[in-house]
Every structure is written in C-alpha cells, then in structure tokens.
C-alpha cells in the first residue's frame, strides 16, 4: 500500500474546482476574412492556420494580414519584473524576449501578424572543461537546421527576423537567415552585458579556480568576484569573444541594421534596435528584397575584412564559411583569410587583445562597426556597393553614419561616462601602427600541422615577442590526451616556464572539437603562463590569449602527426606576426636534435600515442556530426553539412560494400 500512499500524496488536489472540467467552449467570436479565391486556391493548411490564429486570440478580421516570423534563442522564464522563475543557460538569451516584444509591437502596429519561435542555445562558458563542451560546435548545425525547418513550417511567412546573441546560437541564426534566398530577413544582435564597477570581466572570472590553487586570490575574493562579474542580467560577455565577434560579423554582412552590434542589453538604445529592425524588415518586403540581395560574395569578404580590423575570435573562421555555404556562396579558404589579414590593419583596442582592454560596450559607444568601416572605406578595403538590410548600399549607410546625430551622441557619451576618447578605442590605421597593434590571425604549418593550424597572433603577449616582431619558442613537449589532465598538470605545477603543451585527440572525431579556454585562461593569469605555448587539434574560445595554436590538421584521430608527438620531444615554434607566416615543427626527441624534414619522417614512422582515443563520454550525436562534417570537407570548410558531398560519400560506400 505504501506506493499508493505516495501517489495519492503526489496527486492530491485540495481545490474542489480542480475537477470542474468543461467539455465545450464558446470559441472566438467573429468571422475569418475569407474570400472565394482563398477557399478555391489556398492549401488546407493555410486556411487551418487562420483558425489556429484566432484560436490563440488574434483579432479574426486581421489574421490574414502579412505574416512575419521571429526566430530567437530565448531561454529561461522571466517574470514581468524581470526576476527569474526558471533560469536560462546564460545571460545572452535571458533578456532577448524584450527584443521580441518590441519588434512584435512594431509589426502589430504596422498591421502585420507576428509569430515567434524559439531554439535556445547552450553556454560555452558554462560547459568549459566538461563533457557539455562535446555538444557545443555540433549544436550550431543542429540549431540552424531546426530554425530552417521552423521557417519552412510557417508557409505563409513573408519575412524572418532573427534575434540571437551568443557563441553558437547566433551563428546558427545567421546560417538560417542566409538560407532564405528570395525571402527578406534581418538579424537583431542581442547585445552585451555590462562590466562591474569593481570586479572582473566574464573571461577572467573563469580562472578563479586555478588562481585560488596557485594562491593568487583568496576564497573570499573568488566568491565576491564571481558574484558580480555579470553586472547586468542580459547580453553576451564583455569581451570580443565569439559571441561579440559574431554580432560584429552579422552587422558587417549587412544582415543587421547599422550600429546594432554590441549594444548594452536591457538599455533603451538596445530595445529601440528591435523596433528599428522590424521597420527594416517591413521595408525590405515593400521593396521586394530577399536575403540574396544582401548575402553576396562581396558581403562575405567585407565581413572578413571587418573581422580582421576588430581582431575577432578565430571561431569565426568556422562560422563565416558556414554562413556563406548556407547562402549558396563561395566558401572562403585559408588563402583568402591570409590575404585579408595581410592587407587589413587591426583598429580596435578591446578585451582580450588590447593594447588597452576596453570592454565591448566602449566599442559600441566609440561607434562600433560603422565607425570601423569608415576607416576601412577610406583605405579602399571594403566593397561599399553591397546592399544592406536597410535597403541602402553600404556606401549610403556610411555616409549617413558619418554625419549622424547618433554617432556624435554615443561618442560623446563614452568620453562623458568613462573619460575615454573614442579614437583610443577605435583607432585610425596610423595610430594603431604607432601603438604596435598587429594583424589578427595567421596560419602556421609544419611537420606537426601539414594541413595548417590557426593562431590569433595579435593575442600573443608582446613581452615575449622579439624586436623584429617574431615569436620564437623552442621547448619540450608536455603531451596530454584530455583537457582535464592538462588542467590538473597546470594546477599541480607540473607545467613549467618554457614548456609546450600538446593536447591531442580533441578535434571533431575525439570531442566534437571542444573549446579549451580554461587552459589558455589559466596560463594568461599565471605569472609564468606567457612563457608556455599550447598546440592542439581542438579550438579556442574567442577570449583566449597567448601562444595558443589550434585547429591543427589533420587531427590526431584521423592520423595527423600531432597524435604521434611524445612527451619530451623538442618543438620549435616560429611565428612572424608582421608577415603572418609561421611554423610548428618537432626538431628533437629529447636525445638528439634534427631538421624539420627529419622530424616529419620520425612522426610519419611512429605509431600514434598509446592513449589516443575518442573521449569515452563522446555522444553518438556528436560522432555523427563529426562524420558528416568530415565528409563535407571538414573544419576548414566551416564544419558544415554539404548534402551533395555526403550523399556522394554514402553512395560510394554503398557500392564499395555492395549494399
């Protein structure tokens, strides 16, 4: 009888009216605005959709007006006063419902019928160092696919507004919008959180564990600093990581309205952007524009140029090709990135690259993307003939910005509020050069990375770079096959100044290409960390700094030579930050030294590391993602699903196996 007592307690109902259950309802009053033509020609689903609309309470006479779909990454449940009823995964999707509400109000005011659908997103900061990271990059493709299915599942939509903020949800939203082709779309970047008045940013705060272990902070300091790092409840992190960089790229592509990236979440200027974006989408519909008018090869190149000028996250090397692929455009190659980064000066002084670590809200106040584009235009680095989501060309947008009241007021506000000159945050190319600011990314090769690798070379500590602008480091390899074991070694002082950490087996096939920020963050905030390099087939967070080389190809688990490096091997790293050329080579085995060519032979003849294997916690979903993106061309093509190539591989396999 005990189990029945438990069930009775669980299902106990004190209120008698609970059982006063109706079996009919009156239903909405009025009539659908049907015409004989609609009844003859519309699909039954379109007609039934009107019934659903009035069933949800929309005014019957207006249910057939222009249908607009809003897709967002909203997460959590907020009360009307903003207090939490159920938490989201992160601040980035916590407040975006306010943007949806503002945009919906504008659509409704214009006589349109807004719909809202949600595909929430995870937090890379929350999953750092955990098995949750194994779903991070694969999630992007899945979310974009679900968004595209949701878009197609509302056949009456006339345009799509995407609202998103953070590391994977925002690229997924941009991929979905890019795929619209003839249909208009607008992106609303969800903004950034403000830094605390006294405390640390959301990047540095992720190192309280290792700093406590090394005695750099007390338990009380860790608790207090950790409490206030997210000083406002909404928006992406305060540094130019993947989330902020993706917002910048969305605006640079022309998907988002001018000066919308990096707005402070929750503030009136941020909320107004949703209303203005809604107007832009309605204007596109009126003009007969489609996303294909905005998403062009020239727009993609502009976004890459702006990425270089900002010094953005290397994760966008995965996301921009994926967005281009979704739009049916040419996929940028490593040589394209190299060419652009050699031509384009870095102009923005911002966390985490410096030279002064301004938070992203200061970049917004200094003028954000359009201010950077003014400098790039004056040096002939942009194609300003491209169309933007406003219906105007980029040239027209920049002409407006240069003379706008908005520009004058936000730049004046930065000086008034923080005493910071806008031109010290977004610099001229001449001033940036004078202050020693170097280009963003480079792609070293060598016998460890014959297919290449990537490093945000601008994030290397200048104090360890030689006077000729070259970073040179030769040291012993400290080999790890799990991020946890590498992190333990750092905490327990196994890693010493001069070491080169080699983290293998953490690419797509091993972990879904996890992000290893906790390692780079730990090294950044330890006294000897700038004298330690890191080489891995995993990837890095956009907030990572230091001599950290990632995306090493081929990855270890597909036979890459990085998987054959042994503890004690001597590795030589040479990175020319001025000419953007670099090499990573094994040049010794602990007993003797040799040439890089001899090192290549050694690695080719060695068996893989005995501990090399996919992570035992790797989900089947991620294994499938890894196989599909590999068949599609791998990470250098954006880790996308190229359906034609996947089908070709499957058919070839079926024939080979005689299935």
UniProtKB/TrEMBL annotation:
Origin superkingdom: Bacteria
Domain Dihydroxy-acid/6-phosphogluconate dehydratase C-terminal: 445-584
Pfam families noted in UniProt: ILV_EDD_C (PF24877), ILVD_EDD_N (PF00920)
Assigned keywords, A-Z: 2Fe-2S, Amino-acid biosynthesis, Branched-chain amino acid biosynthesis, Iron, Iron-sulfur, Lyase, Metal-binding
Domain Dihydroxy-acid/6-phosphogluconate dehydratase N-terminal: 90-396
Xref: Gene3D superfamilies: IlvD/EDD C-terminal domain-like (3.50.30.80)
NCBIfam families per record: yjhG_yagF
UniProt similarity note: Belongs to the IlvD/Edd family.
Record-linked PANTHER family: D-XYLONATE DEHYDRATASE (PTHR43661), D-XYLONATE DEHYDRATASE YAGF-RELATED (PTHR43661:SF3)
Protein name: Dehydratase
Organism: Dictyobacter halimunensis
Classification of source organism: Bacteria, Bacillati, Chloroflexota, Ktedonobacteria, Ktedonobacterales
């Amino acid at each position: 009888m005990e189990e029945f007592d438990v069930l009775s307690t669980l299902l106990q109902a004190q209120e008698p009216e609970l059982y006063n259950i109706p079996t009919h309802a009156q239903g909405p009053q009025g009539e659908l605005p049907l015409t004989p033509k609609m009844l003859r020609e519309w699909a039954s689903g379109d007609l039934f959709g009107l019934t659903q609309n009035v069933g949800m309470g929309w005014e019957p006479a207006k249910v057939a007006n222009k249908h607009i779909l809003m897709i967002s990454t909203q997460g959590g449940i907020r009360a009307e006063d903003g207090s939490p009823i159920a938490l989201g995964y992160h601040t980035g999707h916590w407040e975006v419902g306010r943007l949806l509400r503002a945009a919906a109000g504008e659509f409704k005011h214009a006589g349109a019928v807004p719909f809202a659908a949600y595909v929430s997103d995870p937090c890379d900061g929350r999953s750092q160092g955990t098995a949750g990271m194994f779903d991070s990059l694969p999630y992007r493709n899945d979310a974009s696919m679900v968004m595209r299915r949701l878009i197609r599942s509302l056949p009456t939509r006339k345009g799509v507004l995407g609202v998103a903020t953070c590391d994977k949800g925002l690229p997924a939203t941009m991929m979905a919008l890019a795929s619209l082709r003839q249909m208009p779309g607008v992106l609303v970047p969800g903004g950034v959180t403000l830094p605390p008045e006294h405390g640390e940013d959301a990047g540095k705060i992720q190192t309280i564990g290792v700093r406590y272990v090394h005695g750099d902070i007390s338990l009380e300091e860790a608790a207090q600093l950790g409490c206030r790092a997210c000083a406002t409840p909404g928006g992406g992190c305060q540094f130019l990581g993947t989330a902020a960089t993706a917002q910048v790229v969305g605006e640079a592509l022309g998907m988002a309205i001018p000066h919308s990236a990096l707005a402070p979440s929750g503030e009136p200027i941020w909320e107004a952007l949703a209303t203005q974006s809604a107007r832009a989408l309605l204007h596109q519909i009126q003009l007969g524009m489609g996303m294909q008018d905005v998403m062009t090869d020239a727009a993609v190149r502009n976004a890459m140029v702006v990425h270089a000028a900002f010094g953005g996250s290397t994760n966008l090397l995965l996301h921009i090709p994926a967005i281009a692929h979704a739009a049916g455009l040419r996929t940028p190659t490593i040589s394209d990135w190299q060419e652009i980064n050699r031509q384009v000066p870095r102009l923005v002084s911002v966390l985490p690259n410096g030279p002064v670590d301004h938070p992203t809200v200061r970049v917004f106040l200094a003028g954000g993307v359009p201010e950077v584009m003014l400098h790039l235009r004056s040096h002939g680095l942009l194609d300003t003939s491209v169309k933007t989501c406003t219906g105007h060309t980029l040239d027209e947008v920049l002409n407006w910005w240069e003379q706008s009241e908005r520009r004058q007021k936000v730049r004046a506000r930065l000086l008034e509020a923080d005493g910071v000159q806008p031109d010290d945050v977004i610099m001229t190319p001449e001033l940036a050069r004078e202050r020693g600011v170097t280009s963003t990314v480079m792609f070293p090769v060598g016998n460890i990375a014959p297919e290449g690798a990537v490093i945000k070379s601008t994030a290397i500590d200048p104090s360890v770079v030689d006077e000729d602008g070259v970073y040179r480091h030769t040291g012993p390899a400290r080999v790890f096959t799990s991020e946890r074991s590498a992190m333990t070694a750092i905490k327990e002082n196994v890693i010493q100044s001069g070491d080169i950490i080699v983290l293998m087996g953490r690419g797509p096939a091993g972990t879904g290409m996890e992000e290893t920020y906790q390692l780079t963050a730990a090294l950044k905030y330890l006294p000897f960390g700038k004298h330690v390099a890191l080489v891995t087939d995993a990837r890095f967070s956009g907030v990572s700094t230091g001599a950290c080389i990632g995306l090493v190809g081929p990855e270890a688990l597909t036979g890459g030579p990085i998987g054959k490096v042994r503890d004690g091997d001597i590795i030589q790293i040479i990175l020319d930050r001025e000419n953007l050329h670099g090499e990573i080579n094994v040049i010794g085995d602990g007993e003797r030294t040799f040439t890089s060519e001899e090192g290549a032979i050694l690695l080719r003849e060695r068996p893989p590391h005995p501990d090399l294997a996919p992570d035992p916690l790797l989900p089947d979903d991620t294994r499938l993602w890894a196989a599909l993106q590999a068949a599609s061309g791998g990470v250098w093509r954006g880790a996308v699903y190229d359906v034609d190539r996947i089908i070709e591989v499957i058919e070839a396999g079926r024939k080979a196996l005689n299935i």
